[in-house]
Amino acid sequence: MAAKTYRGLKVGMGMSMALLLVACGDNAPTRDLEGYPAAEIYERAEYEISQNDFDDAAHYFSEVERLYPYSDWAKRALIMQAFSYHRDGDYVPARAAAQRFLDFYPTDEDAAYAQYLLALSYYDQIDDVGRDQGLTFQALQALRVVIEKYPDSEYARSAVLKFDLAFDHLAAKEMEIGRYYLKRKHYSAAVNRFRVVVEQFQTTQHTPEALHRLVESYLSLGLVEEAQTAAAILGHNYRSTEWYEDSYALLTGQGLEAKAFNSNWLGAVYRQMIRGEWL
Length: 279
Prior knowledge:
Low-confidence stretches: 1-16
Helix content: 55-70%
Shape: elongated
Distance between the termini: 46 Å
Strand content: under 5%
Radius of gyration: 27 Å
Order of helices and strands: HHHHHHHHHHHHHH
Number of strands: 0
Structural class: mainly alpha
Number of helices: 14
Largest sheet: none
């Protein structure tokens, strides 16, 4: 990604660049950069990237922005700040730099990349399903902007793939909590979680299990028609799965069959998913 952003911006490594490298050293104080042309500081930042030192690279890009505000070099350095911070795993300043770029240059050709970096700064922090999902929601929102605002950009396809994965991640969280309640025989609480998956995340891989867990939960609560309806949906859409086999065994073990009833919320889901009736 970065290659596209700064390709063609190099100005040639000459004697002045060599002097900048010597003058700055490994931990250059800010005052040492004053007086150097923006192009040379920018080039030093690119050198740090070539050395995989993204922390120092971000520092030099930020100095270009600080010392030469409102210049074309500052604009170039700002998007590269976001890139460098992100590569360094420093997500908060990465988001700040990307958002600043979008605020200052909303119509620039690199705006799509800035929005993508902003989304990645949330997405790459999504951890295991046991963690708080606030970052997942923020990642989804930022990825949606990439998809809807920049559909023809080179980042749109990747954004769609990551959106689907993040969406699946939220469903996994609901499943995890639902299983927790089910294991402890808190059936009503479990139903609420599995219902969220069926109603809001039915395009994810977790829907078949959610339907089966609803069969389990409803049978435990004595709500037979709801259990039968969940199994009917499962049997129609996911008959070849292990989850349908398990639900079928549960029902037949009690002398029941998979059958849709319209008198519960799953009846509405059945009409929508199976019959295509949305009214």
